[in-house]
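Input record (one chain):
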Amino acid sequence: MNTKAHIRQSLLALAKHRTSDAVALAHALLNTPAIQNATHIGVYMALPSEPSLSQFIHTVRVSLALPAYDESIKRYVFRTFIPNKTSLSLGVDGCLAPGSNSPIIPQLDVIVVPCVAVDKQGNRLGRGQGVYDQLLADHPTYAIGIVHEAHVLDQVPVEPHDQPVQAIIHG
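The corresponding structure, as predicted from the sequence alone:
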């Protein structure tokens, strides 16, 4: 039986060699009804092994937010992100994030989630730090998982704390 760690390790190794089409991904996201009806969207700044949202971020015309660790409450929050305006720095998890001077966004209409793997039921496998499990639990809303097409599996191991996505888009 494959454990989460084993699946994660092998797929992250493969992801380093995968490419994604940021324009096609942006088009797919922009044509999703949940995105079309949203006014506040949580996004991510892609790590090298993740499909990039760069084209989507610079095309969509709604309020955006990025995850950031808030040291004062010891939790991840979503902070306002304005492309080409918000100052970003490397967060504790190695991802670019807005600083504490960027306002916290308490409610989002959609959260776009990077996935190492996902199954057809929406169960996702992340990087193993529980960041998006915590964010999705704190912000119950429509979540779209972004994953390399080859990383959609028949089944992903699930634990009680794991938070699923409601839709999957291949990046």
